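Tokens for chain A. Residues wanted.
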């Protein structure tokens, strides 16, 4: 590990109360800890519980059902889902690049959408 100020190799200097290795610069005598791993950013949810929540969501369980089963608030579950989606998007952008597409297969979904009379504006066609 190198010092953030001096950019020289530092010496180990015990452990922090949370268990992370501490270092001390031999030149400027500043102490600092090793970088924290934060796979879930600022969320304090245990990694195994986050994994089980994502597995339940992938299996098709609703957010409120996951909330009842795991005891985690639904806002936390939704934040975890957004974080997982963003991380997947970043990984896909890193891994899949410059791929030429020759054939595309798309399924069609047909649906009928109707507007109520009160929501129609002037000039819009029939409902």
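Reply:
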């Amino acid at each position: 590990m190198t010092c953030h100020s001096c950019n020289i190799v530092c010496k180990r200097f015990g452990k922090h109360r949370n268990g992370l290795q501490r270092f001390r610069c031999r030149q400027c005598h500043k102490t600092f800890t090793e970088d924290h791993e934060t796979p879930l950013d600022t969320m304090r949810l245990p990694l195994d519980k986050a994994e089980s929540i994502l597995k339940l969501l992938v299996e098709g369980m609703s957010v409120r059902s996951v909330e009842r089963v795991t005891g985690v608030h639904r806002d936390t579950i939704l934040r975890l889902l957004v974080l997982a989606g963003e991380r997947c998007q970043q990984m896909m952008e890193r891994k899949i690049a410059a791929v030429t597409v020759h054939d595309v297969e798309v399924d069609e979904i047909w649906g009928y959408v109707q507007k109520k009379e009160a929501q129609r504006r002037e000039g819009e066609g029939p409902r």
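The mean pLDDT is 86. Residues 56 and 62 are 8 Å apart (CA to CA).
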